[in-house]
Amino acid sequence: MAENTPYGRLEEFSPEIETFASYSERVELFLQAHAVPDDRQVAVVLNAVGVKNYSLLRGLVAPAKPSEKTVTELLDLLKGHYEPEPVIIAERYHFYTRNQKEEESVAQYAAELRRLASTCSFGDHLDDALRDRLVCGILSAGARKKLLAEKKLKFQGAVAIATNYETIEKDSRSIQQQHESGDAHKVAYKGKDTGDKPCYRCGRQGHAPSTCRFRNARCNNCSKLGHIAAVCRSNQGKKYNRSQGKTHKVDEQADETSGESEDDLGVFQIQSISSHSPPIMISLKLNGQTIEMELDTGASVSLISEEVKDKYLPHVPLQPTHIRLQTYTAQSIKVLGKCQVTVKYGVQEKSLVVIVVAGKRPCLFGRNWLKHIVLDWSSISHVSLAEKQKVDKVCSKYGAVFREETGIMKNFKAKLQLKKDAIPRFHRPRQVPFALKEAVGQELDRLEGCGILEKVKTSEWAAPIVAVPKKDGRIRVCGDYKVTINPFLDIDVYPLPNVDEMFAVMAGGEKFTKLDLTNAYQQMELDNLSRDLVTINTHQGLYRYTRLPFGVASAPAVFQRTMDTILQGLDKVVCYIDDILLTGVDDNDHLKTLEAVLQRLQQHGITLKKGYRSTEQHGNADSLSRLPLPHCPKRELDVDTLFNIIHMSSLPLTHSKLKAATLTDPKLSKIMGFIRTGWPQTVDEELAAYWRRRNELSVEIGCLLWGRRVIIPRKLQKQVLLELHTGHPGICRMKSLARSHLWWPNLDADIEQLARSCRPCLEVKSTMTPPPLHPWIWPRKPWTRVHLDFAGPLYGKMYLLAVDACSKWPEVWEMSSTTAKRTVQILSHLFGLYGLPEQIVTDNGPQFVSEEFCSFLRERGVKHFRSAPYHPATNGAVERFVKTFKQALKIGRQEGKLSSQEVIDRFLLQYRSTPHATTLSTPAELFLGRLLRTRLDLMKPEIYQEVERQQAHQKHYFDRRGCDRVFTLGQNVLVREYCRGGVKWSFGQITGICGPLSYWIKLEDGRQVRRHVEQLKKGSARDRVDKDINDDWMSHTTEPQIEESPDLRDETGYHGNEDQGSEGMAEDQLERQEVDTPSETTSPVPRYPRRNRRVPERPFMVSLS
């Protein structure tokens, strides 16, 4: 304890008594109340914290001394030690799992919720969280029902309603107990009827039938409402008889001596019925002493004898109680009192009340303790030694049934029948996850060693495998036959037993045995013709099953039919595929049935998993006689499906995937049919949205489009929504981005729903309403005015942000230092990339008001505008981007998959490619003059790609029948004629090359013509021109004659030697020109008059080299 000082006494801090936040407040109030001078505050606080905390402070400030620190620094050091920064998830877990305790009032529960919520960072959602937890965790079902009926409920209102309901319940209980106390002595009397008749609904006394808790119960005997089977009048003389086991029934009655209640236990009556069945004993520790207590679910209270109390709990004080106990013969049992003891069972530890009675009596574990202690029922429910010996004797007689290896069924073989139109299907092996590859390989080797699989080299059928992890850590290898033989199987139809049939067979049984077949299907051999059909393709090669495999559509019916045939004629036996259930009217009949079943199984070579369980003292095992079958097991996805689900979402969605999904979508396929064949006058309501846009819908390469927006099929909408939500841009930006690429009905509503259900967005999103923005004059061109600001620290780093006022183009730079020098370096780099802006807008940060920064801008002719002090809205363009940037970075880091730089890069790409709410254009479009390519662009079908593909396809098939044809200068050829009557071919010689596929040819009559390679053949002239071609052509001065050949066109546009210049000649004239040269031979007489054309004034020359 702290000593007295001239300023009073301040107790030292003790974490067991109070929180450090509370102690820190007391220290500040102490210093203020006693007006301690500043120079003495540290000494006073160090003297008050105590020896333990002073030693702690010396270690925290070493090598300095605590006296060298201020009071605030000392308190902060202690706070960081005693109350470190809490883990939000853990704090919220404690908050959401906190329920109201038994002895806790509503006010105490509400105060505890407030305390737990103080470290959960609920923010503006604090009131909602407190209200929801109060409604869910309150003990009173009536109060919860009343709270749920309120439409607009706040936390304070919920506390008030629950408190009022709690008060009403206490008052009603007190009045009821006072009313019942006057008739307590009548209940204890067991003689003649004194007017307190038993309730006809339940048979008990002490209450009226109108208030009986069984007034709405349904009788298990006659199925009528209003009573239970124990008092049913339809039994026709049969008395309701409980099991012959020993029970202790404790009934509530009133106290004849006092009207007050004791822990709501009332007055009790104990009845005992002797039995040969051994009791169920529970081993517990009471105040550290081990005591054996008999489990009795018929007793409402737990009790111990005076002897046990004196032996094991002598120092525990005995408290008075008004509880009265009686035996079955109405003899009173002396109650000495009650004790508050600490009960420990396993890892459970509770403080509970136990009743102490006089004499030597058994210790009972009653229902009041079962509410607080969860027993290990698996250890309690056991098979007696005698029963186990009988079962072991039967099992040892048929030991072959319980051998380890998988059995081979005798006299039965499975045959798979294919349909007539079956087509073999061969699938490649699927990729096995690396974590499972070794286990899958071991399982394949084991199956091959057991003879269940055999290796093959080739097969027409092959199914990929599915590796399913079992609960014991092993792998089950199954063939995915739904992609191979299942669609072509002629499936054997055989009914499986239903629940009613199984209940009918098991009726009258007391004990039940379940036999589980080892690898059931794989015990049945396949005939040789069926084995090739069930071949599987693995990473180790091809295997085929020699036994009936899992996954074949006919397997359940084939196996069920076989097992029913094997077990035919046995009573009290039912088989459901690989599980055999059996029972008997008594133990002997049960064992006979068990032996008969094992004998049948051994005759047919079937093996089982060994295990037997009795249900006489195990209520939850007796399900077939009392309870319905358990709920359907949770479907386990195979590893390949899980892998695809996890990793396919990260792959971009292309138009080929959209095409496949569109063709399988029932709505969109119907819409595509309407577009091709015509729309009806009316459509269903679900197609109304498409009908209104019917004139704007089109189909391109299998994809449905509304204008230029792709219509997304329903099964891909969720993936597209997640793609739009990449970077968590918010509702408005998601809508803007979607309107540039895609559409489906109710798209905006789906975007809003996704954004509002995103937990990271909800946790980070600010609910503050921004103040009105001061409008700036919008620049007419990019990079005219740039807004700058710093963001951070975020995850230990600072960032410089720049936003172009015209295009809203953002730049983000990670800053190792925020000095003016470093800021100038970044701006110099930006100016080098995009040039000098006219204006820079910043706030009044020390970097921006420094002389170095201002001089840097003045030297470059850039005007510097600073916002008004404490008015960030002046620099609103970048301030809003700072908020968006912080939100995106926090959300991205919360996902835990990417680094900060990767999050920033994704965010910038999304931001720059999304239309801005102000400009209605993307920043990239205004700043760069083009759109940025994103993964969403892959969904749009491109026409040019289809055209190029078709052209390549045509060229491929055309070139198969073609070949390269090349001619050289001076080569003799046959030339196709078009203007010489019936003459189709003339002889000539190559004189020039005017294109990749075009040549100049001098004909034997002296004409000069241009032809395509398809108009030329290799050949020799009958009369070769004697004179050298080059000399004759260069010395030719005769007016050239033009031959009209309208069908000839040169694809390249090349016309002889480019050095000669032909730009003055019309292209169509060059393509039609043919030049005659003087010839000694007589030219043939033309069929039609020759057309004379004016020769261009520019000299016409053709290169012969």
Automatic annotation (TrEMBL):
The Reverse transcriptase domain sits at 449-650
State which residue ranges cross the membrane.
none
Residue ranges of region Disordered? Answer: 239-261, 1014-1105
Keyword field: Metal-binding, Zinc, Zinc-finger
Gene3D superfamilies named in the record: 1.10.340.70, 3.30.70.270, Acid Proteases, HIV Type 1 Reverse Transcriptase, subunit A, domain 1, Ribonuclease H-like superfamily/Ribonuclease H, Zinc finger, CCHC-type
> For the Integrase catalytic domain, which residue ranges apply?
778-931
GO biological-process terms attached to the record: DNA integration
InterPro entries, sorted: DNA/RNA_pol_sf, Integrase_cat-core, Integrase_H2C2, Peptidase_aspartic_dom_sf, Retrovirus_Pol_polyprotein, Rev_trsase/Diguanyl_cyclase, RNaseH-like_sf, RNaseH_sf
Q: Does the keyword Metal-binding apply?
A: yes
Q: Provide the GO MF annotations for this entry.
A: nucleic acid binding; zinc ion binding
Every copy of the CCHC-type domain together lies at 199-213
List, alphabetically, the SUPFAM superfamilies matched: Acid proteases, DNA/RNA polymerases, Retrovirus zinc finger-like domains, Ribonuclease H-like
Bias-annotated ranges (Basic and acidic residues): 1014-1034, 1046-1058
Protein name per its UniProtKB record: Endonuclease
Give the originating organism.
Answer: Amphimedon queenslandica
Its ancestry begins with: Eukaryota, Metazoa, Porifera, Demospongiae, Heteroscleromorpha
**Which gene does this sequence derive from?**
100633604
